[in-house]
Amino acid sequence: MKIKFPIFLIFILAMGPQKGIVVADNQIAVDIGSQILKEGNAFDAAVTTALILGITHPHSSGIGGGGFVVFKNDNAIGSLDFREMAPSSFYPEVFIDGRNSRLGAWSVGVPGELAGLFELHKGRGALPWSEVVKPATRLAEEGFVVGPVLAAAIKSNFDSILSDPGLSVIFAPGGNMLKEGDLCQRPNLAKTLKKLELGLADFYSWDTAERSVVFLNSKGGDFGLYDFESYETKYRKPVSGSFRDFDIYSMPPPSSGGIAIVQMLGIFEASGLFFDRSLNATRSFLHAMTHAFADRAAYGGDPDFSEIPMDRLLDSSLHATLSVWSPEKGPQPTIEAGLASIKGDLPIVNQADDDGTTHFSILDKFGNAVSLTSTINLAFGSKMMDPQTGIIFNNEMDDFAARPGVPNAFGLIQGAANAPNAKKRPLSSMSPTIVVSNGQVYLALGASGGPRIITGTIQTLLTILDGGLSPQDALSLPRLHHQWLPETVWHEQGFEPMVLAELQSEGFLFKVGSSGVVQVAMFQDGEFKGAADPRKGAEVNISIVHE
Fold first, then answer.
1. 416 belongs to a structural domain
2. Which of 48, 66, 153, 373 is least surrounded by Cβ atoms within 10 Å, i.e. has the fewest?
3. Is the same domain home to 170 and 280?
4. Residue 529's domain spans which residues?
């Protein structure tokens, strides 16, 4: 059935005070999440927004995936790890033995999305759990209009969709791919969500868990009900640091994002420069990226399995040393990068597009903040949907160092600390971040885009904090990306051509490429502000929620 794409109108209700803001990369998620925020608080809106995104952008996230969240509640800032977890059948050589880390059942980790949302909401939400799940159940059953981002994902993954019975019946009914403006309904997912309105038991212990195990094993996997029953979220102490007069809080391992962001901020601040896109500032920032990604490769992993030198990596004296160590001209040599080169720990490709991640940021009038990144890794994850439950399963196991010395789908070289193992969580680049000024949340931001999550998030942060730009203006500027290896620096079209020319003459290698997709919420001078990054291919209107 063909229907017109709806026009979203924004009404500013001037008669009531501001209640908060929802920033996401999909208009339907923003609109429904904003309605829940009007009735409840940031934690209520976070659950609904995440579930809606899993329906309207099913190639990016969903209840078959997982993620991270950094949040502020009652003057305390915390972080919650609901990353997917390897099943108990895993061992370090699981992919060396010939299994596929990107497609099929062996690429799938036990999903953590629902457990994370439930834990985040518990004791913090103002509305009952069932009330924040119901809008998603209703949308999956009634259907939604396919937007440009989903339409593009279906088109670029059409062969994979046709080859999977679950995906094809939803996204290519009768062999005809859904296009922008078509109606997409997900009735089987609606039935699963209906059960989840009562809680998590069905997904992790009862019928849905049992069906998931049977489905994954029918595809050649080796899962047990125990793998679902034993899944648990983990509260972890946020990575923290300072920049100028701001306090920075971001996600700790198994995310690499928080350490990398604080490390880059420290190295850049030690240079004495401001992030003004000048020649010297750009060179210094490129050096900071080289150092941070070298250390990511050497030390990144699950802290429950590997010892990560976090205190040393976050030490301002190390940042000053690395800043001074960086050359006055030219790129930082790859064998002289980061703490890893000092200690002799460097481990002995071009980036790929990341369609399997989404980020949203929510602030409310009570001072609560939610910065949440959710993922199924690559577009449509493992390329498998269970036809009975409507769940699209992740392919997060490729985020392990599946084969020593071999880059993953994002061209990242990773060390032994991130080798696969039973019940282990793979390293991630997701970087949900909160910036605090004088005890009050100033920014909540994060991104999607593989390793470009880290570099997109920090450049947006620096542009706002150093440049004083609004979120919208900050997102409109072209960005850079560098990840230690390969030695290429990717730049978006329009990035300071004179600066790039001079750096190229010094020996930097440049190539045109894309950036992370950043979502920013801001509270400044008593007002909420925000902007959604249009880099995924759709403009999203952000409205301020009023009483």
1. no
2. 153
3. no
4. 240-353+431-535
